[in-house]
Amino acid sequence: MNSVKKNNYRIFVMKQLYPFFDGVKKWFACNVCISVTLKIFALLVPVFYALFVEKVLLAKSAKYLVVVVLGTLLLQVLISVFNMCKIKCTYKVNNTVFKQVKIKALQQYFDMKFEKYPSVKAGDVKMVLEDDVNRLSAFGGAQSIDYVLNCVYAVILIILLFGLDWRLSLLSFMFIPITFALDHLVGDKEKGVNGALNANDGSWATWLDESIKGWKEIRINKLATKREEEFEKFQKTEEKNFLVWIRYWVTRVLVIPKIKDDFVMQFILYFLGGILIYYNYLSIGVLLVFVQYYGMLSNTVKDLSQADANLQSDMYFYERILERLTNEEDKAEDGKSEIDRYDISFSNVSVRYPGMDTEVVENLSFSIKEGERVIIRGASGAGKSTVLKLLMGVLSPDKGSVSYGDINLSNINKKKLYKNLAYISQDAMLFNDTVMENLILGNGTASMEEIKEACKKACIQDVIESLPEGYNTIIGENGSMLSGGQRQRLLLARAFLRDAMIYVFDEATSALDKKIENEIEKALEQIPSERTVIVVTHREKFFDDYSIVNKISISANTKPK
User: Which of 324, 333, 497, 538 is the 20 to 30 Å CA partner of 466?
Assistant: First the structure.
């Protein structure tokens, strides 16, 4: 990638990043002003250095000593103060952009089409939300402010160096294209290694997530040795790729600048400068100032070259996060209509999953009136889960229609529908947090009285009060510190706090014994009569015993009975 393409890419990325600077544009502008001021201060340092050499040391003029000392001290104090202000501005901008980009990326995941979620890996999400977002949020400094200022600064330094001595300048400028060429070559290699490292890290994180979630099965089934072998494989791949990456990085950042600047250029400058001084073409003070300015130019060129190389090697990360932020193809389309009635109607609905020869649900029709108690029963594989997916808009029918009131579900605003729909399954999620934090997910504005009332309805209040720290007790990952029945009742209490219009229970009692199941049934009776309750189960006894207005039995490829 040549310089023009790199600069065009910088502009493209900044245009994508600019909306995330809302709220910190003043801090960004302040950062620019401070950076410019620091560059000016840096240009003044060699001036005092030259005064010290020419006027104090060589001319032996003591009156200039006070000027040099006071000027140098004042300049260093100002540089320190402005650097502190720059750090604050940079942190403020980067932190805000980081947060806003991360929220946007997370929202993109939440807005994905439901059928896309099975292909999403935890490790890939982790890499996007951490590594990619972090690199992109820092882009506005290293690849925009600093890069542009360094370009201007390099031009000013070149003019100053030519003004001091054109002969030394011509020799010095020969190494500028060499620096860019070497960094470009190494940076291109680094980009490929970065991609391999990132891919391994993503797969490793996904593997770790699965291992932690399945630790019981791993230990009981004696799979620990196998998982250790897999861990070592990831580790070896990481070590191999990292060694390659660190070799390229050291070469680009440490070896090339060290050889070029500290050995070759320093020797040439002092050797040729000494000859020019010997023939009275140059003074010692001018040579020392030239070396100072050349050091600044060398560092500036190094920063520019490394910024180009970093842009090239980090492009993998930029492209992945930008694709996530701007991808509209994976985004679920949502309707605009709002529900006024919660009567549910399936009309001749058929669904076939990709790769299947027959429909999971064929020509299915039934209706559920608002406020009805409904049980949907069927054997495993009959299509109960598919019916629920259709009912909640997770899945769209191939034929027929699903409606709420007189409105087709495809035209309904799903976000507003979900505000009035509480879904509880056997595998419903609880978080490794306190009882209280898990409850208020259902309603963040609920009062303590409302929370306790919801827990009483769910028959879980006494259990919570018996816990070591009551509502502040941490319940473990997915409620692992609770029994199956306690877990389901806590989920039910959270659903009560929702005060939803429709409550859906998907096999929520299938793993519970009869006693606990009876407690759940009693809790269900606490749901107001004007709310719709839909219970999905494969247990015939629950189907026959529970007092239900509407009973729907689903068999594969048949209409409900």
Answer: 497
